[in-house]
Design brief:
Blueprint: E1 15-18, E2 21-24, E3 38-47, E4 52-59, E5 64-71, E6 77-84, H1 97-101, E7 103-111, E8 115-121, E9 127-133, E10 140-150
Antiparallel strand pairs: 1-2, 3-10, 4-9, 5-8, 5-10, 6-7, 6-9
Length: 151
C-alpha cells in the first residue's frame, strides 16, 4: 500500500493491516539510547533490617522515571530513594563516603509481603539509588527492583 507510485514516495513500511483496518506502524526498542531511556535493575536480594542498595547508583542527568519493586518474600519491605549531585559520586552506603554524598528524597514507601509497587518520581536528579530494609531482623527474600527513566 503505497501513498505514491514512485520509489521516492513509497511509504509501505509505515503502515500495517490489522483487523480494525490500516494502522500506522510504530516500532519501539528496548534501551534505545537515542531516545534517552535509562534502565537499571537490582539482582534478586535478601533484605533484613540493615539498609541495602537494591539498585545501585544510576546516572539520570535530569530524567524523570519510575521504580518497580517486586517483593516475593514473607516480610514487608521499606524503600527509600536517595539522590546525589557530586560529580563522580561513590555508590550509596549507610556510612563513610557513601553517606556523605547521598541525600534521602521523598517518603519511605512500604511494600507488603508478596506484593509489587510502582513508584514514579518527577523531580530531576543527577544520580539515584534505591535502598531497602525491613522492620525486623527476619529477612525477606526474592526482592527484585527496576528503574526506568526517560527524557
Amino acid at each position: 500500500m503505497a501513498l505514491k507510485d514512485s520509489l521516492s514516495g513509497r511509504r509501505m513500511d509505515s503502515f500495517v493491516q490489522t483487523s480494525e483496518g490500516t494502522a500506522t506502524r510504530v516500532v519501539t526498542t528496548f534501551d534505545d539510547s537515542s531516545a534517552g531511556l535509562v534502565y537499571s535493575s537490582g539482582t534478586t536480594a535478601s533484605v533484613d533490617d540493615t539498609a541495602v542498595a537494591l539498585v545501585e547508583k544510576t546516572e539520570l542527568n535530569g530524567k524523570t522515571g519510575s521504580w518497580f519493586v517486586y517483593n516475593s518474600g514473607s516480610q514487608s519491605l521499606n524503600l527509600a530513594m536517595y539522590a546525589a549531585y557530586a560529580s563522580g559520586a561513590v555508590d550509596w552506603s549507610a556510612t563513610g563516603e557513601g553517606a556523605k554524598v547521598w541525600d534521602k528524597v521523598g517518603s519511605t514507601i512500604s511494600v507488603a509481603a508478596t506484593e509489587t509497587k510502582h513508584i514514579p518520581f518527577n523531580n530531576r536528579y543527577r544520580y539515584v539509588a534505591l535502598v531497602g530494609y525491613t522492620d525486623t531482623g527476619t529477612p525477606t527474600t526474592g526482592v527484585v527492583s527496576y528503574l526506568y527513566a526517560s527524557n
